[in-house]
Design brief:
- It contains 18 helices and eleven strands.
- It has a domain of 236 residues: Vaccinia Virus protein VP39 (Rossmann fold), CATH 3.40.50.
- With 469 residues, the protein is α/β, with parallel strands linked by helices.
- The protein is elongated.
- Helices cover 34% and strands 16% of the residues.
- InterPro entries: mRNA_G-N7_MeTrfase_dom, RG7MT1, SAM-dependent_MTases_sf.
- Responsible for methylating the 5'-cap structure of mRNAs.
- Keywords: Methyltransferase, mRNA capping, mRNA processing, RNA-binding, S-adenosyl-L-methionine, Transferase.
Amino acid sequence: MPAFDPVRDAVLNSPLTPSQSLAFLKSPPTSSLPLAPSSHPSTPQTPPRTLPAQSRRPTDLAALLNADPTPRTSTINQLLRKDAEAAPAPARKTIKYSPRNRISPPDTVLKPMSQAEMNMYRSYQGKGAAQLLKRKRSPDPEPIPDQPPAKRLAGDVGVVVDHYNTRPDVGVAQRETSPIIGLKSFNNWVKSVLISRFAHPALTTSKLVGRARGRGPPPRGRVLDMGCGKGGDLTKWGKARAAEVLAVDIAAVSVDQARSRWQTMGGNKFDATFAALDCYTEPLSKAFSPAKLAKPFDVVSMQFCMHYAFESIQKARCMLENVSKWLRPGGTFIGTIPNADQLLENLAGVSPDAPDLTFGNDVYKIRFEDRTHTPLFGHKYWFYLQDAVENVPEYVVKWDNFVQMAAEYGLHVVYKEEFHDVFSEHREHAEFGPLMVKMKVVDANGESAMDEDQWEAANIYIAFAFEKR
């Protein structure tokens, strides 16, 4: 029996495939590979055997660790060249394995980190960041007087606040390029009609007289703009010659933008105070000082925002308390809300085979979550309005329920009209007819800037006015 030879046996027992192993045992020699002689002196030398060139596999440890037995067919440069198939693959440089040159100790390889190390690297900032933290920081700006700190809101309220805070405050020129500029102009015209018809008389009979500004009578009266947003109605209050406006909104960023808009107003500028507050869960006294609330308001205005209060009976009552408590007898409460009757009628008209409870058009969409459950409070739907509202939760305001609750706070309805009726009633009015042209609701020929989809979106709202008795 031949002496034990590890190199020879490794070669014999390391073919690429089993079929090549059998071929090697039976095929005649094609190339010579001398085997190392046995170190045993008495063992006769065995004749050299041969390996087929194509079946030899290297057994050298360095080759096994570093060589790639599968030939490469292409490189990235070859793939980018048209003659990739003709270009030979570059030769790979073999680097021998040398464990004696190890840099790190063997016991550190794959050693798990301790909990302390994980905590350190989780918040690790490096030396440069640590030095930056040691630098002196400029002092924070002083808080605005009479304004509580902003807080993070969750749930549906948080969705609404985040939406209005993140919407940009565009300039007048950019607003003119809005795809629904006709609808926006019409909504502004309706609010102007409400202010002129119901707010202005309350202001002119106010006991508060402000400083004279320019021609005309001195400004009179105080206004509480609840849900002021970015200050879209500030110019209207200036034209109504209000002496003072207190503006409040739940979205703090929007309040800052409204304040900036007021600061850049021209000749009809009035005294104004701005505050961020959730008027549906907290009293006004938390946002304004006793001195600011010492004199009652002549007008309270809530435009396109009161429906958020009807998430719960507690929020609705808190809202009505803030309206009535600070409004003088004979004062006016005006606003605009979605028409519940129309919303529920459209909901009932959704086909039972429809994938969801959605209706609307390309300009607006409303999606309800339940067809049958219609509570007085918390009846939620999701509202989308092109270039204005990005799918936020709103709540149905059932009119009769609202009127009954308002009466408990001394507020009695004096006006309620759907938007299309406001248009029909005032289109030929000596003041409001020309105002439609001035506000670009219609052109000089009486043609509307709204298309049919915008007109349908406008008519999901109603305008109202209450008087405190």
